[in-house]
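Structure ticket #2291
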Amino acid sequence: ERGIPLVRGDATDPAVLARAGFRNAGLTFVVCGDDGTNADVAVLITHQPQRRGTFQRVLVQISDAGLCQLLEQAAVTAPDPAGTRLEFFNLNRLGPRALLDAWLSPTVAGSRPPSIIVAGSGPLALSVVTETARQWRLGHRTSPDRIRVTLVALNAVDQVAALQQRFAALARSADLTAVTADPADPMAPPLVLTPLTAADGSQ
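Resolution: structure written out below.
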């Protein structure tokens, strides 16, 4: 209806990729939902002969952030297959950065830091917490104030402790608070947040 071709089949099958016309694509996203499958498809594409005079970027989603970082580093030093550039990305790393760039408004000089609430404790939620702290510090290097981030989840206390242990610099950029509650429970009582204290002691 919209003129977008749909090819049904196994993306690890060369015949399916050929029907999809990957040789004519300048950019291919590999997002099959499984890291192993994504890697198989990426390897398959890079080993397929490319059309003469064409160049293709292959962007591969890797959900394991640590593995993605290792693959990114390896891709920088490894030579690209002829006519193909292989790149890796992790949505839990890229997503929070894009969200905060779009929605976290810059603060006015002299104003208090904003307060951010993150509901949930999955990989994306935790990445939002760390990226919020990173962006605040980058934009306020000379300010002693810290941005307030409240994590709401059933395991919020454990997750906050783990983040603080993993990222020692987090405490210098963010006032991180844990609230033990189920954000998906409509019957949960209202959240009670303690007043934010600025660097000068005011609230």
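Closing remark: The chain is about 40% helix and 15% strand.
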